[in-house]
Design a protein that fits this description.
Histone H3 K4-specific methyltransferase SET7/9 N-terminal domain; single chain; about 140 residues; 2 domains; 13-stranded antiparallel sheet
């Protein structure tokens, strides 16, 4: 394994990495492609995803945003293969804080997440401008 500079290598798990190394670890900018074809392009620190990056899964799902210690963290956009898009905050790889789901038909669902679950007031806005409100606790709607 290279100790410094920009290299292209095949890792023991079959992943391919092209980018910079420092002291034998991925450090700085690089591209990591897994054996299944998923790909991460962005920053690395101490061998883990760090800073801004884009992760694209083989099924077409995509995340663009911040990473800390290898996990989604901070502001980001996660798009599912069916076109549903989440724009908001992440913490420890989970949805956390304010966020918006945007559906391909134009509906917008806005609210707050705690530990990856809907929490508190949520507002659904339809493409024709109508608004519906609901409340959630631990990911379940409260009537």
């Amino acid at each position: 394994m290279a100790t410094e500079g920009n290299e292209q290598i095949i890792l023991p798990d079959g992943s391919r990495y092209e980018g910079t190394f420092e002291n034998g670890k991925k450090e700085g900018k690089g591209v990591l492609t897994t054996p299944d074809g998923s790909c991460y392009e962005g920053g690395f620190k101490n061998d883990k995803k760090e800073g801004d990056g884009i992760y694209t899964w083989i099924d077409g799902a995509r995340y663009e945003g911040g990473f800390v210690n290898g996990q989604k963290e901070g502001k980001g956009v996660l798009t599912a293969p069916d076109g549903i898009r989440y724009e908001g905050n992440f913490k420890n790889d989970r949805l956390e804080g304010k966020g918006v789901y945007v559906y391909p038909d134009g509906q917008r669902y806005e609210g707050t997440f705690v530990n990856g679950q809907k929490e508190g007031k949520w507002v659904l806005t339809t493409p024709d401008g109508r608004h519906y409100e609901g409340h959630f606790r631990n990911g379940k709607e409260v009537k």
